C-alpha cells in the first residue's frame, strides 16, 4: 500500500512505521474532523486489516487502534472489528500489528509470485506520469540486481535525464539515493533468503556482490545478523 498506492492515484498516501512494538500503518491526507474523511479512514483501515486476515488468518487482530475521530456514542463496532481497544481523539489514524505477528511467515506466501508481481507493479509505477525518482531507482535496481548497485549517473541515463536533474528531482520526491538503493538490496536479500532453494552464495551473486563475505557484511549492516542466522530464524 505504501509503495504502490501511486499507481491508483495521488490523492491519498500511506505510511508504514517500524516501531519497537511492531508495525504501525497510517493513512494520510484526510482531515481528522472532516465528516467524509472519518468514514474513509474507517474504510481504509478496515479493508487493509481484512486483506491481512485473508492472507494470515481470520484470528488476526490489531494490537492498538488510534482514530482522530471523536469518541462515538457506541464504540463497540470498532472494538469488535479490530479486536482491540480504540483510542479515539488521537493525534493520528493508525493501527498497530505486534512484532511477533508481523514476523510470522504467511501461510499463503508464494515468493516467486510475489517477486513477479513486485516487478510488474514497479515497472507500472515507474512508467506512470506520477512516478517518483526513488520508485524508478528501485525498479532499475530490481531489474539489474546482478550488476551491483547502479551509480547516480547510470540511473539518470536510464531515466533519460541529466545527473543533476535526477538528483534534484530525487531530493524533492523521496529519500536520498544511497538510502533508496540500500533499502532495495536489503529487501531483495530478505526475499531471496526466504526462498530455500537458493544458497547464500547464489544470493550474493544475484545481488551483485563479488563474494559471499561481502554480502554477509552488508546483511549484518542491514539487519544486525548474518544471512544464515536470518534464514534460520525464519525457518524456526
Automatic annotation (TrEMBL):
Keyword Transcription regulation: yes
GO MF term list: DNA-binding transcription factor activity; transcription cis-regulatory region binding
Keyword annotations: DNA-binding, Transcription, Transcription regulation
Pfam families named among the record's database cross-references: Arabinose_bd (PF12625), HTH_18 (PF12833)
Keyword Transcription regulation: yes
One term under GO cellular component: cytosol
Taxonomy, superkingdom: Bacteria
PROSITE patterns: HTH_ARAC_FAMILY_2 (PS01124)
Domain HTH araC/xylS-type residue range list: 151-233
Name of this protein: Helix-turn-helix domain-containing protein
Species this protein is from: Candidatus Dechloromonas phosphorivorans
Taxonomic path: Bacteria, Pseudomonadati, Pseudomonadota, Betaproteobacteria, Rhodocyclales
Amino acid at each position: 500500500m505504501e509503495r504502490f498506492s501511486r499507481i491508483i492515484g495521488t490523492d491519498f498516501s500511506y505510511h508504514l512505521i517500524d516501531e519497537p512494538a511492531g508495525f504501525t500503518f497510517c493513512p494520510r491526507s484526510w482531515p481528522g474532523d472532516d465528516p467524509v474523511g472519518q468514514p474513509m479512514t474507517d474504510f481504509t483501515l478496515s479493508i487493509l486489516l481484512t486483506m491481512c486476515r485473508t492472507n494470515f488468518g481470520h484470528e488476526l487482530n490489531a494490537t492498538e487502534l488510534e482514530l482522530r475521530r471523536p469518541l462515538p456514542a457506541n464504540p463497540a463496532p470498532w472494538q469488535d472489528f479490530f479486536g482491540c481497544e480504540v483510542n479515539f481523539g488521537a493525534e493520528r489514524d493508525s493501527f498497530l500489528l505486534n512484532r511477533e505477528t508481523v514476523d510470522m511467515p504467511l501461510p499463503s506466501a508464494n515468493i516467486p509470485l510475489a517477486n513477479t508481481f513486485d516487478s510488474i507493479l514497479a515497472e507500472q509505477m515507474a512508467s506512470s506520469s506520477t512516478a517518483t525518482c526513488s520508485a524508478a531507482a528501485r525498479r532499475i535496481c530490481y531489474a539489474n540486481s546482478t550488476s551491483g548497485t547502479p551509480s547516480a549517473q547510470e540511473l539518470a541515463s536510464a531515466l533519460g535525464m541529466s545527473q543533476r536533474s535526477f538528483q534534484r528531482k530525487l531530493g524533492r520526491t523521496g529519500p536520498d539515493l544511497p538510502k533508496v538503493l540500500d533499502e532495495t538490496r536489503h529487501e531483495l536479500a530478505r526475499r531471496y533468503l526466504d526462498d530455500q532453494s537458493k544458497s547464500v552464495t547464489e544470493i550474493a551473486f544475484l545481488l551483485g556482490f563479488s563474494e559471499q563475505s561481502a554480502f554477509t557484511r552488508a546483511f549484518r549492516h542491514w539487519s544486525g545478523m548474518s544471512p544464515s542466522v536470518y534464514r534460520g530464524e525464519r525457518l524456526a
